[in-house]
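Run log, item B.
One chain of 73 residues. Sequence copied directly from the ordering sheet:
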Amino acid sequence: MRARRRAGRMLMTLAAPVGLLVRAVPALAGLVLLSYGAALVYRPAGFITAGVLVLADVVAGRVAAGRSKVGGG
């Protein structure tokens, strides 16, 4: 019975990071593919595109975090 309880706790502990990775992988794949496509046209455009997308993600994350604090959510 202890082993089952311990396995349940370990599963719940791993659920949040795994969920985060499941949501992040498609976004990361999209960023890489879009940047690679831009680099095929013009090499520096790939780096510029990647930088802009990462910056946009950071800004969107901060805006979302700010809204959750204001909304009390």
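Observations after the first pass:
- The chain has a mean pLDDT of 84.
- Helices lie at 2-41, 43-71.
Flagged for discussion on Thursday.
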